[in-house]
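Here is my example:
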Amino acid sequence: VQQLPTGPDLLDHWLKHPRMGGGEAKVLQALIDAYPEALTHAELCERTGYSPDASTIGVILSKLRKLGLVENGARRVPDSFMEAIA
């Protein structure tokens, strides 16, 4: 098992991860920029340019949650992730 990098290299690792598409990277960056606040659905859609009526944001958030990059039940990055990329 390969050790994950730390600091800014960890964020770079995730942004280049094979399961991280452009949409996931855009949403993750919007959540990082909003930290420590959680965003509403409407706020996240506005910041990323996705339609609030489409399922796109939900699919992206699901992928990011599976990777451990978004809190369950919230539109927010975990404190532990923010500490790790600092």
Remarks:
- The chain has five helices and no strands.
- Residues 22-34 form the longest helix (13 residues).
- Residues 45 and 52 are 6 Å apart (CA to CA).
